[in-house]
Design a protein that fits this description.
Blueprint: E1 16-19, H1 29-44, H2 51-65, H3 74-81, H4 85-91, H5 102-112, E2 115-120, H6 124-134, E3 142-145, H7 156-165, E4 173-177, H8 180-188, E5 193-197, E6 214-216, H9 220-223
Parallel strand pairs: 1-2, 1-4, 2-3, 4-5, 5-6
Amino acid sequence: MTLTAAQKPRWDHIDTVLLDLDGTLLDLAFDTYFWWHHIPATYGTPRSLSVEAARELLKPRFQACQHTLNWYCVEYWSRELGLDVAALKRATSERIGWIPGAEAFLQRLRALGKRLVLLTNAHPVALQIKDERTGVTRYFDAVHSSHRFGAPKEDPRFWRAIREVEPFDPERSMFVDDSPAVLRAAREAGIRWIFAIRRPDSSGPPRTHDEAFATMDTVAELEGTDQVLGG
């Protein structure tokens, strides 16, 4: 899906670019594999459960935590499941990768002189593992995990807290994410330029978003706008 002319950003009206990590810059396929295959397999083996049986057993526990900070918390799931989640993530880190075009997009924005800020729900340990694999944080002027603030990006408290440490002007800021709940929270926080990612996970189907959001398959589509290309 391509952005219409009316939806394309006016880069001369944007000072700060706020970006999600997983599903916006990095392929969410890693997380899908990790939580829905690798964790069930590891949890189920000592209990003589198949991957499918362990997944069904864990599914309600996962779903009960979605859109809360615990869902993203390495320490929480290590305690709950009796597993070293950080070690398991590191052992499967070869599956971590960029969404095509995302790294080039960051490089072009740096050349434009925009302030780049990473806003992620990833636990700091998970972020470190992904950064070790991709070097993603080197492109950013600031990196903020929601765990620092005690509330995920879906929560209005996150947006109030981030303004205390990152005093951006919402009217001159862009935010890109793949989560409908997070996008709605950003809209309620007054962010002027909001873009939704339809294909955050190369292993899954496209996402459905509120028609109020400008929607694109990947963040690379923003690189094709005139000013990014030097027009």
